[in-house]
Design a protein that fits this description.
272 residues, alpha+beta, Arc Repressor Mutant, subunit A, Beta-Lactamase, 8 strands, IclR family transcriptional regulator, DNA-binding, WH-like_DNA-bd_sf, WH_DNA-bd_sf, transcription regulation
């Protein structure tokens, strides 16, 4: 029986897509041998049909998480990034500065989507999958301030068994953390520690990405599904202005992401 060539090529591309690491256009071209113009048309068709998505954070194509027969925990977390992408880009266009969406995994915050690559401003770019320190970063503090007592206790238990490498993180754990989290809840957002350079293993005098950040939780039914930050170069000293002008935008975007993620989860359960 004669096959449909266009459909066969589309299925070949879909099989080649890796849902977590993703594939670039060049990698797909090498894997399939399909000319790049044809590949772009196939990928555009797969995206419009809901079979694939292209992350704004790294430009790689991935299968939709909903297509995975038995999604694991990593796939479920990545789905937040898949859902968040258009919201991040809309926020960046509105406020100029880029954002990351992060989820809690194995006692770190992990980037699942980011709009930094789309920004033409001078900010450090971290890849999807980058793991962020918990006690000094704005996303980590936002998670710890608004997560459940049990989730917070689990993080602290792990930190007791595996003390942070950074001196400042150990200082915060030794006594400052409760007051920091109380202030975060009172203000409605978390701030990056001024002595944190963005690297969870190297001190600020060795590794400094030069950014500052605030972060808020994306919550549904009292549970933190993710956290979302807004970042800018520290040298500009913009924190007060950004909080005044854009905190509400950040909070509204985080709420929209949480609502969309909750709706997607409800739809998924209804079809199981």
């Amino acid at each position: 029986m004669k096959t449909i060539d266009a459909l066969a090529r589309g299925l070949e591309v879909l099989r080649s897509l890796e849902e977590r690491r993703g594939q670039s256009l060049a990698e797909l071209h090498r894997a399939t041998g399909i000319p790049k113009p044809s590949l772009l048309r196939i990928l555009d068709t797969l995206e419009q049909g809901g079979f694939a998505w292209r992350a704004i954070g790294d430009g790689r194509y991935r299968r939709r998480v909903s297509l995975i027969f038995r999604p694991g925990i990593d796939d479920e977390l990545l789905r937040i990034g898949e859902i968040a992408a258009p919201f991040l880009e809309a926020l960046r266009r509105k406020v100029i500065w880029p954002s990351d969406v992060l989820v809690h995994r194995n006692f770190r915050m992990e980037i699942v989507e980011t709009s930094r690559r789309q920004s033409h401003l001078n900010v450090a770019v971290y890849a999807i999958g980058f793991r962020v320190e918990m006690f000094l970063s704005a996303p980590g503090r936002a998670y710890l301030a608004f997560c459940s007592d049990a989730e917070r206790a689990a993080v602290l238990t792990d930190a007791a068994a595996n003390p942070p490498l950074l001196v400042r993180a150990r200082q915060v754990l030794a006594g400052e953390l409760p007051a920091i989290l109380d202030e975060t809840r009172r203000l409605g957002y978390a701030s990056r520690d001024p002595l944190f350079g963005g690297d969870g293993e190297k001190e600020m005098n060795v590794s400094d990405d030069g950014i500052d950040a605030i972060a808020v939780p994306a919550m549904h039914d009292g549970k933190v599904l993710a956290t979302m930050n807004l970042v800018w170069p520290r040298k500009y000293r913009l924190k007060a202005q950004i909080v005044r002008n854009h905190l509400a935008d950040l909070q509204e975007t985080a709420a929209a992401i949480a609502a969309a993620a909750a709706e997607a989860e409800t739809e998924k359960r209804s079809t199981e």
